[in-house]
Task: structure prediction
Amino acid sequence: ADAIISKLQASISKEEDAEPALLITADI
Result:
């Protein structure tokens, strides 16, 4: 699970629009 979150956070860093991904992490 940690690896998935790390990849997700890495993709968030690359995207200026991070809110949708933030909702996904909150859902996890």
Notes: The mean pLDDT is 69. The first helix runs from residue 2 to 14. The chain has two helices and no strands.
